[in-house]
Amino acid sequence: MKNLLLKPQFIYKSRKAILLIILFSIINYPFNNHCNAQEGQVSDPQGDSIIIKSARLIADNYVFKEIGNSISGKLLNDLRLGVYEETSTLESLTGILQGQIWEISKDRHFRIGTIGSGQNEDDGGKISYSEHGFKTIRTIDDSIVYFEFDHLPGGKDDLNYIREVMSENLFCKAMIFDVRNNIGGSGDFVTFLCSYLFNDHILLCTFHNRDGEIVSRSITNPPDLMKITPLAKTPVYVLTGHETRSAAESLAYTLKYFNRAVIVGEVTAGMAHPAKTLRIDRSVYLTIPFIRFEHPNTGTDWEGTGVIPDVEVPQDQALEKTLQLIRDINN
Q1: Full-prediction pTM beyond 0.90?
Q2: Which of 147, 159, 214, 317 is the least buried, fewest Cβ under 10 Å from its Cβ?
């Protein structure tokens, strides 16, 4: 009978193969089969997979490569050190990851959380928005038109509604855009709205990828039926607050640095980088800023600093202050 004792070299190779199989299984653990019996709990393989996949996506996609690599390295190193071992739910794990990502990047467009927990909100709550983004439209003092936007949608119907509303107010004395409590939205909304405020094709901004290349441009397109829009010389005021975010900040920043509007209120949130949302698994999403905005007159954006008002007042006094400014000019 042959000797069945295994040689040491064979034992070593077998153990190495088993370790590689275990590591491969952790990384590629099937996302739709790893939830614990209690909803919201996280298993060790699922947690490891979320961390590893998040680290890779951030390193490969974040608009600033070095910062992306730093975040990725931090997550993987903490995984190796067992920092996440005590987390028992998806909410607690993504909460820790969110804090680590923000600590390094300072970028509030970065998001990681559970599906359905409110990807667009800091507090995870759900908000219902006004149709086409127009929460309020009213006329003040007979000829001052006030628009309150709670978000800036960019669908075809939304842009058509802008056309309809602006066409009805071509000869007003002043326009007020209120974005004090606006989470942002589509750059198409901003471009289309701004098209009524200039008489020419104006390059509003460029967008650059992580390699510094221009990937798109935002250019005004004055309404086809009018060679000259009367609103191009109409005074414009933008009301801002600390919860003015993203595309709403873009509207304020763009008009401010073309000297096309007076900004009144508080410094905005400082969220400039457009982002895309990816699914880590069936329960977790990751939103990554992947391009950056550049204004032609400043060569930069408002990331981290916010848009600084021309007239800084508490946001709840911004409308009253703006009306005072308009009345003082016209008296």
Answers
A1: no
A2: 214
